[in-house]
Amino acid sequence: MLELRNISYQVEDNIEILKDINLTIGDGFTAITGPNGGGKSTLAKIVAGILTPTSGRIILDGEDITGLSITERARKGVSFAFQQPVRFKGLTVKDLLTIAAGKDTSINEACDILSSVGLCARDYINRELNSSLSGGELKRIEIAMIIARQTKLSIFDEPEAGIDLWSFNSLISVFENLHKKINGSIVIISHQERILKTADRIVVISGGVVEREGSRFEIYDDLINDTDPQICAKLKEEV
Amino acid sequence: MNKFEENLLAEIADIHGTPEGAYNIRVNGKAGGRASSANIEIVSKEDKPGIDIIIKPGTKNESVHIPVIISESGLKDLVYNDFYIGEDADVVIVAGCGIHNCGDQDSAHDGIHTFHVGRNAKVKYIEKHVGDSDASGGNIMNPQTICYLEEGAYLEMNTSQIRGINSTIRVTEGTLADNSTFIVQEKIMTTGEQFAKTDFNVKLNGRNSSTNVVSRSVARDNSRQEFISNIEGNNECSGHSECDAIIMDRAIVTAQPSLTAASVDASLIHEAAIGKIAGEQLVKLMTLGMTEEEAEEQIVNGFLK
User: Domain count of chain B?
Assistant: First the structure.
């Protein structure tokens, strides 16, 4: 379980990106949605340790991890799939899956993971993560790395972005299978209706605050029918 | 050979015990073992130090190893090795030099290799340079690789120098006839106060000749690197050179790629990039559980793999 207590994040000129966020994320799927620039990705980076909050505490399974480094949090079981995957000259897909798994990954294991994200493993296992891969391919490999890690908290920042031809049913089944394996928390930052429909809980972050949160049943219909132009226009556009 | 020499031989040429096929091992400026094969003849030069390696036309799937080991501190070794690769041959040539310097004087090896690659012959040339030092003596290597490619010839050169060479000036030249191809992949890492200069000069004289010169390097500590390349397009041809360097600590890297076109049908491109390890790469590997130092090593090792 992840608890965020009074998380605030300010940048230069005292601009507040996040304002006193209080949130508890339990096991199962949590979808975080809301307009662009609302603070969703910033919050994810704060949980992963990439950004340091101006104030507030981050508690993972009862342990205060606020002062821990990115590496220490990763080793405690925090995984984070970037919205924009990173390219590496010289490192292959298998290298990165091995690093992610924390142990030597057999060809069969690597192939199973790649197949689950819709990549023909044989064609990719020895490819470098360089500019020869498309954005969509990199995105799937980014997701594959999180699957390889199988940690208790997995955060995906807009996993659907850039994946055009891959059906969302496959993407959703990836998350469902991951949940069966880890039996932990999966947090998905998304604008996609079909991902929101799958979530156990939905959190709406807008203007740096938690505007609303609750079960899918409590939030989803309100969100789709919302007349608030700031949230609704963006969501409908994305859907 | 002692244990140090055997280890160096294994590292630079993957030789354990007696190598298969044709070979010539040079240890401290003297013959350390030689064998010719039915198709590959190795003979000593009469007028200067070095050997001629003569590969018969049509020789297929054979290899020749010509490593050099230096373990005497203060030795200055100069050697001329000429390769004559017959038409339609398809061979692998493994060279390389390892220096173990346990004294206070500089040890040096200058290997001048000239390749005459016959019509439609195919050569893969692997060259690895490494050095170790127990004392203050430096290790110096100044290799020259001069390549003449006849019509339809193909030469792929994989060269690496990633440890223990204090100073190096590496000169590589290619002269290409019609339909020939010259590929170079270079990997270099310098540390401490080391200096490495690479100088490529490729003349695309033949119609449909092509070259691709790719250098990846990592400069650490106070080391200095210079990358110079010039591709001349004198006919309908294509040439590409790429210098990609990671700079760390207080290192200095210079890249000077240049192109000269003397034909309107020459298609020439150069790329040069020097930069530190991207912060986002370190962060990504740290989110996978690596420390910053482990991530840095992983990125460098992958880059030079």
Answer: 1
Q: Is residue B128 part of a domain?
A: yes
Q: Kindly report the CATH number assigned to the domain that includes residue A218.
A: 3.40.50.300
Query: Shortest Cα distance from A75 to chain B (angstroms)?
Result: 5
**B285–A75: do the CB atoms touch at under 8 Å?**
no
| φ, ψ for residue A110, nearest 5 deg | -65, -40
Q: Which of A50, A82, A91 sits opposite B302 (nearest CB)?
A: A91
Specify if B293 maps to a domain. Answer: no
In a domain, B86, yes or no: yes
Q: Is the Cβ pair A89, B302 closer than 8 Å?
A: yes
Domain range enclosing A213? 2-238
pTM of the shown model: 0.86
Could you give the ipTM of this predicted complex?
0.92
Chain segment A40-86, per-residue pLDDT in tens: 999 999 999 999 999 999 999 999 999 999 999 999 999 999 999 99
Contact: B303, A89; criterion CB under 8 Å: yes
Q: Which chain B residues are Cβ-neighbours of A78 within 8 angstroms?
A: 287
Structural domain boundaries enclosing B264: 3-280
Q: Is residue B303 part of a domain?
A: no
Best to test chain A binding among B288, B296, B303 (most A CBs inside 10 Å): B288
Q: Which of B231, B225, B157 is nearest to B197 (CA)?
A: B225
